[in-house]
Amino acid sequence: MSDNIPELSRSFTEEAIMWDSHSLPPEILLDIIIRLPIKSIITCTSVCKTWKSLVQNPSFISYHLRHSTTKYLLFSLYSKTAWQVYRIPHEQGKEHYALHWDDNQDFNEYTKFYFPLLHGPERFRVVGTCNGLICLANYICCDTFIIWNPCIRKFVQVTKPLPLPNIPPFRYSVSVGFGIDSKTSDYKVARILNFRDRKSESPPKLEVEVYSLATAEWKTLTTALPPTGTECYGNPHASVNGALHWVASRRTKDNILIKFVMVLDLEDEVFSEIAMPKFADNERNLPSTISVYGNSLALFQEVSMNYLNIWLMKEYGNVSSWTKIVILADQGPRYYRPSAKGFRKSGEVILKMNDTKFISRDLETQEIKNLGNAGYYHTYVDYYVESLVLNDKKSQLCSY
């Protein structure tokens, strides 16, 4: 048992109006409850006020999270193509989220769920996941955010960021990220806007807004921003080690384009940079996307219809540890460019081979496993762990 369990047990006992001497001791009861499935733990809140107080106790929620060792893979899936959804917005593509066991050989589906507010013409996408929370944002403007815990059927509708000046959407681009301040356990949303005046040759301007779930407020960062001319390449991002990471670039005084990983530390809310790998001449201008790889980073480069590059940072922050791996796309149709979506816990890369086919591939043996998902149009893949996070939140919380 953890060191904080005796303290939690004392708190549990103090909150009880009367403790039946024939009941189990509090520390044993805690040990039993912590092992229950999420749905059963939530049911415990209806037993009595004492149990409800326990399950909503921040210490209990943190302890439960530390012991939630089963990681699933979250798939965000559509039953229509993105083209159909945008082309005929009133005919909604059925969207759902599926959790798959990542440990078993068959990659079976564990459960699926739907978000109750995803209706009407506006579409939402997954920004990121963290400790059982899923952050959603509307497409294009990314000015409407939802932080959702599907396991406990609760969510927070994030207040809208400060309104932008009257700027047409095509004059700016938006990059977003979601993660946790590891020091304060505060969950944060970052919104980065790149403004570009297309009538002049001036470098793009950058504005950064950060939302804190603890304070329920947005703030604009004014210090320690990236240098002028930095341009963030949008989504996806990678949230690891208490920081958000995006692929970014800027031009030198000699007009040479340099690419790098832009890092936002969520504790200090300051930016830093990580150098890219040493690309070959024919790789420098290839589009790169970033992903979490264990406790570090990975870069994906879609080279051609035949293969893609995967760069693994074996040691986080150590630029010399970038390692290149080439994946041959011999399992998909030649007219479809394969794309990497992330990694399984085993280290196998997840590849989207066409609109409905997904495989995982061992980076050492090149062994291939079919992950199925036939008939759906995938938009997002990420790790997911069940948790009670948000269960202690009182204000701005919505239930369904």
Automatic annotation (TrEMBL):
CDD domains: F-box_AtFBW1-like. Residues 18-64 form the F-box domain. It holds the Pfam family FBA_1. Gene3D superfamilies: 1.20.1280.50. Transmembrane segments: none annotated. InterPro entries: F-box-assoc_dom_typ1 (IPR006527), F-box-assoc_interact_dom (IPR017451), F-box-like_dom_sf (IPR036047), F-box_dom (IPR001810), SCF_F-box_component (IPR050796). SUPFAM superfamilies: F-box domain. This is F-box domain-containing protein. It comes from Castanea mollissima.
